[in-house]
Amino acid sequence: xxxxxxxxxxxxxxxxxxxxxxxxxxxxxxxxxxxxxxxxxxxxxxxxxxxxxxxxxxxxxxxxxxxxxxxxxxxxxxxxxxxxxxxxxxxxxxxxxxxxxxxxxxxxxxxxxxxxxxxxxxxxxxxxxxxxxxxxxxxxxxxxxxxxxxxxxxxxxxxxxxxxxxxxxxxxxxxxxxxxxxxxxxxxxxxxxxxxxxxxxxxxxxxxxxxxxxxxxxxxxxxxxxxxxxxxxxxxxxxxxxxxxxxxxxxxxxxxxxxxxxxxxxxxxxxxxxxxxxxxxxxxxxxxxxxxxxxxxxxxxxxxxxxxxxxxxxxxxxxxxxxxxxxxxxxxxxxxxxxxxxxxxxxxxxxxxxxxxxxxxxxxxxxxxxxxxxxxxxxxxxxxxxxxxxxxxxxxxxxxxxxxxxxxxxxxxxxxxxxxxxxxxxxxxxxxxxxxx
Length: 437
Hints:
Layout: E1 20-23, E2 45-48, H1 56-71, E3 75-77, H2 96-101, E4 106-115, E5 118-127, E6 132-141, H3 146-162, E7 171-178, E8 185-192, E9 199-200, E10 207-213, E11 219-226, E12 229-236, E13 242-244, E14 251-257, E15 263-270, E16 273-280, E17 286-288, E18 296-301, E19 307-312, E20 319-324, E21 331-332, E22 339-345, E23 351-358, E24 361-368, E25 375-380, E26 382-388, E27 394-400, E28 407-412, E29 418-420, E30 426-432
Parallel strand pairs: 2-3, 2-4
Antiparallel strand pairs: 1-6, 4-5, 5-6, 7-8, 7-30, 8-9, 10-11, 11-12, 12-13, 14-15, 15-16, 16-17, 18-19, 19-20, 20-21, 22-23, 23-24, 24-25, 26-27, 27-28, 28-29
């Protein structure tokens, strides 16, 4: 499979095993419309996404693109009922005056054809008021992959207009919950980031907890609780192979990959005390990183792999600490009122997300990696378990009301865009995949 780069600024290289991407002619100028993703008061950019030519599949692709962009909170798809120009042709410039009249600042036009059993999608992104093309690409895939094509187009548009990588062509692994309270079945599940195509990876015979993606491959680590004890597994999504991390004296839990995917950090509980260990996946050698007579758990590596943030009650209540990846120089990070748990370092290294319990509620929050600039993003009866999108812009977490089921929610780093995930069932412990290849 040959992957070609497109010849315009900020274009994605759509390195999909099933996709071939080639660039269409594009204006060399940088976008004059840009979305400032770092402002908490950003107004969503009006963007028009008319149905692509090519029948129902064109309309379906546009539906996914519109939903992706709207869900980000940075874009506001213009109501199609207001469109003046109909049946856009990707070979021609749009009638910009018609789109200015309805205040569409950006416009996506596209066309879908099936050639030799392959789905071919051409699309262009236009700056309406500057009357210029910002982006043009052609994507070829098998017809059943039309949703991934839509996600790739969404990522390309998002990156062009924000300057940041998108996060739409990703998957989410989580714990799917079913059954009555006290007798819940907790299965390992996976779905597209927009809630489509959910499937189950375990049969429910064990209670699944804390699934986590590797940032370098389609591999998951998770804890399975069985009557005879707990086991940490590695599960390869491409091959379906599952293997145990090994046998340990005591209960093992809270696994998480290192950034390079070569190690897994986890906790081991023995006699009421838990410590953090790390295992080299090449030789399965494990090293103990903490030895304090307290509960040390929830390790998460910094993006460069040099540090680990974790939570510990060694000061009398659960707080966040940072240490070297070899266990050296542990220091306390949080000193404000409340109980801090489930820390996770952002992919950019800028922030650490956490769960905080205070004032009779649970919150999802973020802070700088040095512990400063703490910001609470959500509050409810029970919010917990944040997980970062691969671009560090959005967090997933689980939310539960009094007596209700746990549901999956998302929030952006400004706290402004808070919404439930599309998955209709009960779920917890979400984790985001890297961008798919």
